[in-house]
Amino acid sequence: MSCERCHDTGWCAAATDATRVERCECWRQGVVQTLLSGARIPPRYRDCELASFVTYENEQLLRAVEKARQFIELFPVVDKGLLLIGPPGIGKTHIAVATLRQVVLDKGVRGLYYDTRSLLSTIRATYNPVTRTSEVDVLRPVMEAELLVLDDLGAERLTDWVEETMNLVVNTRYNDRRPTIFTSNYEDLSDSEALDSLLVRVGFRMHSRLREMCEFLEYSGPDYRDFEFTPSSEDLYRAWSAQPRRKLPVRASTRARAQLKRGKPELGWTGGRAGG
Fold first, then answer.
1. Which of 138, 169, 208, 231 is the most exposed place for a label (fewest CB within 10 A)?
2. How large is the average pLDDT for residues 202-231?
3. CA–CA distances in Å: residue 136 to residues 41, 151, 166, 234
4. CB 91 within 8 A of CB 221
């Protein structure tokens, strides 16, 4: 349908001065929709909003949601990104994507979403060991996005190649002061022998960068996916109050455990190039 105000030209008379023209709202909406389409948000999460996120009396959860709202309001003048930490199914991806969507809608910026494993898999699939052109083509928009969401940080086994690639992304965004929102299932523990901690899963160098470039927001809660219906605040609060503390199963290898016991905090998993 043709726009009655600009007749699809994208320009219309300024509201305050009829002798001047300005961009029509239909043009702005078209740009925003293009930006949203290019953000790679998965279909399951394309309608995520903070307003639709069901909360309950969980102080750490409420703090995470409030920090996301503040981030949206202040963007792009933000000092730090966000790192949402907690067990699976508690809404970390919803909060992260809702923040990304709203920033794109309100500020018209180039945003991008990637599941960390999907990003690494894409790089592996396009990797050219001679020119590395394909790798650069995949990584450039990730490193240059005005706002990036990296979901499920630490899920990939930390090979040399994974560590090198992820450090390149994080260090580039750190140096360029480009805000990033991460999510992770791994707790932020200072104990270097806790093999399923965020520190060990991402490596010491990246963890140091994350500490400086992100606000850590760790919270727990019931798994939304355990409900056969859309839970209310009361349902979630009851489930959260009744459940024991949720932790991930131990996944680190015997070799890695032995290395840490010998006092080697840098996990020497064999890695190599892409596909290793």
1. 208
2. 94
3. 21, 20, 13, 48
4. yes
